[in-house]
Design goal:
Layout lengths: L3 E13 L10 H10 L17 E13 L3 E5 L6 H8 L7 E6 L3 E4 L12 H11 L4 H15 L14 H14 L4 E5 L7 H16 L3 E5 L3 H7 L2 E6 L2 E7 H12 L5 E3 L12 E10 L8 E2 L4 E9 L6 E9 L3 E7 L14 E9 L7 E11 L3 E15 L40
Parallel strand pairs: 3-7, 3-8, 5-6, 6-7, 12-18
Antiparallel strand pairs: 1-2, 1-4, 8-9, 10-11, 11-13, 13-16, 14-15, 14-17, 17-18
Helix pairs in contact: 3-4, 4-5, 5-6
Bound molecules: adenosine-5'-diphosphate and magnesium ion.
Adenosine-5'-diphosphate binds next to β2 and α2.
Length: 434
């Protein structure tokens, strides 16, 4: 057997915009395919479609992973990480190029791809084991470990469709990691679950890697990724931007994330981000005072603005902003739907401007990013523009007091406090002697 576990050559995946598939194949279906044909060439020539309506989620991606290697995959939202894993576990076919996979694949992609909803936790564990080609006795041996790890003992005989998403992910991770697939694909699992469980998952992934199995690990947790994966690839707009030792790739990636983008504008409507319903004209952030040259001052109100061409007069459109702090944590989300003056206003299209004020003394210091979503009828996101703005929030005021560290928290509102002396028999409050 060759020492290559995964070989990807000139892989490309083109999606039609607006036809996001509602249904994903389950791990079960995926694993069945791979178990019956451990080596396959995945090749598919898509129908040519007009360039306007499509997006290359992956383009010209080539790399190899040897058996026993642990590869990290990083990149911003929309870079193509999940698409790559979906192609590798045959949930979706590539449009160009091919991927060879040598070995049984276990995968943990988004919540919801894992099990048969009508079956109980117990049945799903057995089913997944059988699909991976394990004998009944082998599954039995692993069973208690899985249940323990997932902490779902009480719910073993409940259909998984009744599980909370936390329970679901715990079981999915436990199954994927314990049932000994030769190749383990893990997507963003650390974004779900509490800190304790995340730690446990990382520990388990370390074990899996030490046992010499092949792991592909997508994560925004750079610390975990650097520890777990000697090598990494960085995807940017569907291409491999850099590949090599994780230390180098991660540090270059973090440098890029720290770049400030205070404004983006598109004068040519046809080329602006968007689709036939909406196109962006301009997004920006500015402080009330100063230029922001040294970062956005925490002590001054900020204005975030979005201008867009509203191309569908039949729809009511809103802007939603998702404000992120580091490592994919959303600090808060806010929507122009909060503007009652804009409710139910009919308009015949044209250019629209929405602005939002972020109060002074609210954000914490550090790097921030904003995703802009355009939402139709307050329910459907019709366009996502990820990483539209990126900025560093800095503290410019002198602090009173003796401590100068960074205050913990995703936001740092300056709240009103009051402390009063309520008096007492032996202990009257009195002003301290100067
Ligand atoms: N089923 C789909 N239909 C249309 N576009 C899609 C579909 N899945 C992903 N995309 C688009 O492909 C790009 C890559 O997405 P994805 O692989 O999910 O990125 P990541 O996991 O890195 O955040 C994005 O622009 C996304 O909107
Ligand atoms: Mg993803």
């Amino acid at each position: 057997m060759s020492d290559i576990a995964i070989r990807v050559e000139n892989l490309g995946k083109r999606y039609r915009i607006g036809t996001r598939q509602a249904r994903y194949a389950t791990i079960r279906e995926t694993v069945t395919d791979l178990a019956t044909a451990p080596l396959r060439r995945l090749r598919h020539l898509g129908q040519p479609t007009p360039a306007e309506e499509t997006i290359w989620a992956l383009k010209d991606v080539s790399f190899e992973v040897k058996h026993g290697e642990v590869l990290g995959i990083i990149g911003r939202n929309g870079a193509g990480k999940t698409t790559l894993l979906r192609v590798l576990c045959r949930i979706t076919d590539p449009t160009e190029g091919y991927a060879e996979i040598h070995g049984r694949v276990g995968s943990l992609l988004e919540v919801g791809t894992g099990f048969h909803p009508e079956l109980t936790g117990r049945e799903n564990i057995h089913l997944n084991g059988a699909i991976l080609g394990m004998k009944k006795a082998e599954i039995e041996r692993k069973f208690d470990e899985i249940v323990d790890f997932a902490e779902i003992e009480k719910f073993l005989d409940t259909p998984v469709k009744r599980y909370s998403s936390g329970m679901y992910v715990r079981l999915a991770f436990a199954v994927a990691a314990h049932l000994e697939p030769e190749i383990l694909l893990v997507d963003e699992v650390l974004a779900v679950g509490d800190a304790g469980f995340q730690k446990k998952c990382l520990g388990k992934m370390e074990d899996v890697a030490k046992e010499g199995r092949t792991v592909l690990f997508v994560s925004h947790n750079m610390i975990a990724l650097r520890n777990l994966c000697p090598k990494a690839i960085w995807l940017e707009g569907g291409h491999i931007s850099e590949g090599g030792p994780s230390q180098d790739v991660v540090s270059n990636y973090l440098k890029l994330l720290a770049t400030n983008v205070y404004e983006q504008a598109w004068d040519d409507r046809a080329k602006a981000p968007g689709n036939d319903k909406v196109r962006l004209h301009r997004v920006w952030i500015e402080p009330d005072d100063g230029t922001g040259d040294a970062g956005m001052p925490r002590e001054t109100p900020l204005t975030v603005g979005v201008e867009y061409w509203h191309l569908d007069p039949t729809a009511q459109l809103h802007v939603t902003l998702q404000v992120y702090v580091e490592q994919q944590i959303v600090a808060f989300t806010t929507s122009s739907g909060l503007d009652s003056g804009w409710q139910g206003v009919t308009h015949s299209g044209g250019l629209v401007r929405s602005t939002c004020r972020i109060p002074a003394h609210f954000l914490n210091t550090g790097q921030h990013r904003i995703n802009v979503h355009i939402v139709r009828d307050r329910s459907t996101v019709i366009h996502r523009f990820e990483d539209a703005l990126s900025f560093d929030v800095v503290e410019t005021e002198q602090r009173s007091g003796a401590w100068f560290g960074r205050v913990a928290g995703v936001v740092r509102p300056t709240l009103r406090w009051r402390t009063k002396c309520l008096g007492g028999p032996d202990n009257e409050c009195a002003p301290r002697d100067p």
